[in-house]
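User: quick one - fold this with pyridoxal-5'-phosphate bound?
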Amino acid sequence: MPVTEETAMNGNSGKIEDPRLGEPFLLTPGPLTTSYAVKQAMLKDWGSWDGDFRAMTRKMRDMLLDLLGEERSAYDCVPIQGSGSYCVEAMLGSFVPRDGKVLVLANGAYGLRAAQTMDYLGRAHHLLDKGDYLPPRGEEVSAILAADPAITHVLIIHCETSSGILNPVEELADAAHAAGRKVLIDSMSAFGAVELDAAKVNYTAMVSSANKCIEGVPGFGFVIAKTEELEAAKGNCHSLSLDLHAQWATMEKTGQWRFTPPTHVVAAFIEALETHKAEGGVAGRGARYEKNRDVMISGMRALGFETLLADRWLSPIIVTFFCPADPKFDFSAFYEGLKSRGFIIYPGKLTVVDSFRIGCIGRMDETIMTRVVEAAREVLAEMGVTSAAPPRAALEERKKLAA
Ligand SMILES: *Cc1c(COP(=O)(O)O)cnc(C)c1O
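Assistant: Sure. Structure tokens for the protein plus pyridoxal-5'-phosphate:
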């Protein structure tokens, strides 16, 4: 059944009909549930060379830079085709010189993927691997940088989407800057909903993509970098198509993307940016997601579920829950039961204990989150699970965070 205005949340009215009448809500880290207006914006074809599309590209770059506030003038925005990982690779390949070295701060899949990217690039890196979810801390960064003068850049994952942890970006960036190193940030799943104030964090470049907190559809990402660093990045990149300096220089000169742009995705993204602005920008978007998270977590906790992370580390992006210890609990039945009620959740990524994740981002509000909890209650009852409490091993695991 097609999505109609009644089945996709439109604007901020919060008017949402029974999701079972339309597409399921995606409680995932992206691609996520988008508004009807965003989908509708794609019902037109644009010529990539035409002035209308060039103006759209300019507008989109300006709207993204507007999110930076006062620091805007020192930065520029370079969109690049592909999914988020392409943009991370473009950022690493374009800003890290061939003889540079990156300290990669990992506590989950995306940090590890960045380290793997460095291997592919054949450029040096030092991996600090904190495991499934423990946050890297400022003192650790200081110690590693003091011991290895070859390190030129520190890569920070803002929200590590594999556990949902919000890493202490400011503390980590401060440690890097105190040691005279440059900061690169993967803010893929946080940008647009969690503040990243360039006046406080002072990064060289950060990366995000169309299909996360701005609520567009997938197809490209963007790097926001200091203009002076973009100028200096000439000749660094290993790849023609991922060269951010070349993409930026061409865009500045001609207003065009170097190679076929995802025209429909850009049109949808501009619509998404307008909605983001109308919702109150980063603060407004962040507030809705926080409400989504709080309503969902308190409902799930009332059912007996427990979160992997202590409240202090929980992001408003996605939340990891332990699977219940009750032997009657079966994740695939739980997943299918929720799907049949209109909600698609995400499996967990922890290596030690079973878990699943529920996303708080996308075109959803607290009324939807209340229904998610209600659906979870129904499915547990159907399975005959009386308590959603996790096994002891899960709680032991969690104690590591407090240590
Ligand atoms: C989504 C995401 C990416 C990019 O993943 P793709 O599948 O390539 O879009 C990178 N880093 C983080 C933290 C993410 O959440």
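One thing worth noting: The chain has 14 helices and 14 strands.
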